[in-house]
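User: structure tokens for this one?
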Amino acid sequence: MPIVVSAKIMEEGKAARAAGKTISADPYRAGSQQSADWLAGYLHDEPEQNVDRPEGAEG
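Assistant:
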């Protein structure tokens, strides 16, 4: 789970997703904390993609 500084901005991201907007609707500067918070909201219901799992014969 990402670290969220602004719950308000995260809610903006959730609302954008619910309204059917694309990820490019992020109004914040790329790389900023605000953009990270907005994206955390937008992607809140998607499974984590960078999760270590055993592969094949591992584990």
